[in-house]
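Researcher: Go.
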Amino acid sequence: MHTESLFIFLLVGAVAGWLGGIVVKGYGLGLVGDIVVGVIGAFIGGWLFGYFHLAAGDGFLGDVVGATVGAILLLLALRLVRRPRLSRLSLRRWL
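Model: Structure:
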């Protein structure tokens, strides 16, 4: 993998993770977290778009669209799996 390809790969991941965090409120992950979510989202989005025979477009913009859709789905799945924890203050309020 060339340096330019790696840079574009990381840039797509960062943009997709950032956009996914904006759409799914409550997720501020930072640069490294956005890149990780965007890269995983790119795999999810690429698989889903291929499975349903959809085209996100060509080039950089198409890659960002597919990765963003995957990142949004990943963050929504994390929100469903993650359970809110009761703190002592909220527990005292209910007792």
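Model: The longest helix spans residues 59-81.
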